[in-house]
User: Which sequence fits this backbone?
């Protein structure tokens, strides 16, 4: 593998880790729950931040990682056989973080989504102990747990 390709892969993985672990960012569970919504929104044309082709590439990468077929077999090449898996896995992790980050931000900015993260109870479901501003009643109420 060329040195430039290794550096690019490591840089994108480092960026993904930095984004995924920043304080106040979406959790791994929130990101995983966002993936089916992302796919539906892209397929319906509502979300244009990514393409069906990119989603298919991500699906292909996940399939490659779990497939017994391998371009560089570990059984013959030992640790060197893990290089292709590492590159594909790094790319997939970086893409998942990047795509879910952008999608969750889009959901928050458009008022869509599950209501998790910075948007609070945007989806209408109150979190026990959270103060909810109900404009129809003209006041704030605190839901009971």
Assistant:
């Amino acid at each position: 593998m060329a040195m430039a390709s290794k550096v690019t892969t490591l840089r994108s993985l480092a960026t993904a880790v930095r984004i995924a672990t920043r304080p106040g960012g979406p959790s791994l569970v929130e990101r995983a729950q966002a993936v089916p919504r992302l796919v539906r929104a892209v397929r319906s044309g509502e979300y244009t931040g990514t393409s069906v082709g990119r989603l298919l590439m991500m699906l292909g990468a996940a399939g490659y990682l779990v497939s017994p077929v391998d371009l560089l077999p570990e059984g013959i090449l030992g640790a060197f056989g893990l290089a292709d898996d590492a590159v594909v896995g790094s790319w997939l992790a970086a893409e998942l973080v990047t795509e879910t980050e952008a999608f969750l931000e889009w959901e928050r900015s458009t008022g869509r989504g599950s209501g998790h993260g910075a948007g609070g109870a945007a989806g209408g479901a109150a979190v026990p102990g959270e103060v909810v501003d109900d404009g129809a009643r003209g006041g704030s109420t605190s839901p009971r747990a």
